[in-house]
Every structure is written in structure tokens, then in C-alpha cells.
Amino acid sequence: MALVSVFLEIFRRPTIVEVLASSSSPPTSSSLYFASMPSLNSLKFQLPSCVSWGSEDGIQENALAEPAMVNSDSGSSRPANEIASIVNGNDLEHLCRIVEEKDGGPAWIKMMDRSTQTMGYQAWRRDPETGPPQYRSRTVFEDASPELVRDFFWDDEFRMKWDDMLIHASILEECPTTGAMVVQWVRKFPFFCSDREYLIGRRIWQSGQAYYCVTKGIPYPSVPRRSKPRRVDLYYSSWCIRPVESRRGDGLMTSCEVLLFHHEDMGIPWELAKLGVRQGMWGAVKKIEPGLRKYQKARASGEPFSRCAHLAHINTKVSADYLKTIENDCQDSSVVEEHNNTLEKQEGKSIPKLLVIGGAVLLACSLDQGLLTKAVIFGVARRFAKIGRRL
């Protein structure tokens, strides 16, 4: 959901030059800070190998030239039960445990609590001993059914209309009995990184009006690995979607709660990614609800289902008693809150000084002007500078 696009959302086309050029105010300490920093050309030989630079005219070699599109070429001869086993009962059990915060993992650190008139959003993060940071979010949409929200997040064809990072999506295999799918995504990354390819297995379980939607990266040898777009192997993004009482206090279950759990290894330094996510999270989240409301109107007008949305209606039914047995057979994982300043200190401890300088340049040069104001752009740079002085 939101966290899938948050880090990508803040790394957009460079706008800092436009900001500086259009500013009529005297140079600030922040602008002087940037003016004295090394050029991007000098930094590109020093930054980590995850940063893939294009040619001088901005065109990357072997870049995907296909237009944004959704294919449905699921002509696989593999038996349906083999497709369904790609995402299986073990994945459901894992999702149930993290939904109930009983997976035995590290404590969750609260990052954000924001709301609009028709949407509420909370987010947490935790850092496992190995692997990338993990994110948990709770979004509540007013006047939306679980079935509508389930279809919305599963519908790749409609996603292309509101998620401008998704430039290619296709169904490689599907199971008509369970609705399980193997899909291929290509997501657009900013100018200094190559695009990313995802091979994803996904499936939905239903218990009453609650839907457990699992999506995860899978090995898929039949699609050859290419240098570009770069394949993301470690990917997990799963939801629990269920009805909740409206914030209006009328006692009606007319709102929909979405609990999202997400982590992936995009090949970007994790400490830098954590700072980026915190800066761009709310701006990216706010862009989801307009897409949902457009989808709601399209469905109300009788617009036909896409293939992905049709498969979202084919679910594996499980009983509430079965889910309770899973929840009871696991350990607690507490949720804790920490002040933002403490988070910043923790995140700055292990960032090399070179990454601080490079990260400030990359963030400032690629933050989307429509998402974050000039003040926030310079605020990010100041935070990197403060971290650098402490190293």
C-alpha cells in the first residue's frame, strides 16, 4: 500500500535547481551549504553501488522502453494446485501473527499519527537483527467497504491510474480455484537509480468480512534476470482488511481498516531509506485516498472488473476459530512509542559521513516539489548536516 511507494515518492525528478532559481530571497545558510557541496558528478564515484547513474543526457542504458501497461498473459500449463502453493497456509499464519502483534519480533516504534476528515493513518517501524527495516501501518477509510478496498489494492489495471511509479504489470500465472496469482511489476525509480522489477506471488484468504491479503517476492526462473530493471528479491507487503466502526460515533460499521505490513530490500542503504521514508510518508499516503474514491465512483457507475479485480473475488475461506488457534500459539510483540528526536539519533549512528553528504544532495535534488515545500527540502539537508557534525 502506501509504504510500497513512500520511498519512491520522495525520490523524484530533481527540483532543487528550480527552487533556488525561482527564489528571490537572499541566500540562506542552507543554500550556501548546498553551493559548497561537491557536484553530483564527483559524488557518483563515491556513493554505494546501489546508485546507478545514467548517461550524460539522462538516458540509462538498457532502460525499459515499454509504455505503462497491464498484460494478462497467464497461459501457464502448471497445475492450479502448484500455483496456489506458492503462497500457502504458512504465509496466512505469519500474517495473522503480525496482525495480532504476536510474532515474537522486535517492538514497534511509532512514527506517525495523522488524519483527514475521511481517513486516519498511523505508522510504526521496527528494525530486525537481520534484513531491512519493517513497517506497519493502520489506515481507516470512512464510507468504504472491505470488499471495495480489497479490490482497489489488488487491481493493477486501475493502480496504473493513481500509482505513477508502476510502469508495467502483468499476470504470469493464475489459479482459478483459489485466486492465487504470480504477477510481474516494474516500478519507476528516480534518475540516479535503475528501475526495479518485482516477481510477486499473491493470494487472499477470507474470514467473515475480514480479508488477509498476502503478497511476497518469489523465485521465478522462467523470467530471465536482467541487469536493468534490477530485480528485487526480498519483498513482503501484506494486508488485513476489515470493517470498523465509523469515527462519526453512530455505531455503524461503515469504515474500513487496513493493516499493512511491508518490507523490501531495494538496494538502497537502510539508514538512508529510513530517513527518507519518515520525510515522505504522509505526502505519499495522502495521494492514495483520491485514487480509492475514483475507484469507488467507477465501480458505482458499473465499470467492468479487470482480471486482477475478478481474481480478488476468489478467496480461500477460513474460520474464525482457526485464526484464533494461530493467534494463541505465538509470542507477544509490544508496540512502543519514541520521540522523533530519539529516532533521529538512532538512525544517524551508523551512517558513514560520505553517505550523509551524498544523501543530502540526493534527497534535496530529487524531492518532489509538489510533495514537499522548499522549507522541508532544506530541513532534510539540515538534518543530514547535523548528523554529519556528530560523526
Shape: globular
Number of discrete helical segments:
15
Determine the N-to-C terminus distance.
35 Å
The beta-strand count equals: 13
CATH homologous group name of the domain at 106-323: START domain
Q: What is the helix fraction of residues, given as a range?
A: 25-40%
For this structure, the CATH topology of the domain at 106-323 is: Alpha-D-Glucose-1,6-Bisphosphate, Chain A, domain 4
Q: H/E order of the elements?
A: HHHHEHHEEEHHEEEEEEEHHHEHEHHH
Secondary structural class: alpha/beta
Which residue ranges are poorly predicted, with pLDDT under 50 across at least 5 consecutive positions? 10-69, 338-345, 353-357, 360-381
Strand composition percent: 15-25%
Gyration radius over CA: 22 Å
Rounded average pLDDT: 75
CATH architecture of the domain at 106-323, by name, is 2-Layer Sandwich
Structure description:
The protein is α/β, with parallel strands linked by helices. The longest helix is centred in the C-terminal third of the chain and has 17 residues, at 374-390. It has a domain at 106-323: Alpha-D-Glucose-1,6-Bisphosphate, Chain A, domain 4, CATH 3.30.530.20. A hairpin with a 6-residue loop joins β5 and β6 (181-187). Strands 1, 2, 3, 4, 5, 6, 7, 8, 9, 10, 11, 12 and 13 form a 13-stranded mixed sheet that branches. Mean pLDDT is 75; it is low at 10-69, 338-345, 353-357 and 360-381. The protein is built from 15 helices and 13 strands. One of its GO terms (cellular component) is cytoplasm. It comes from Cannabis sativa (Hemp).
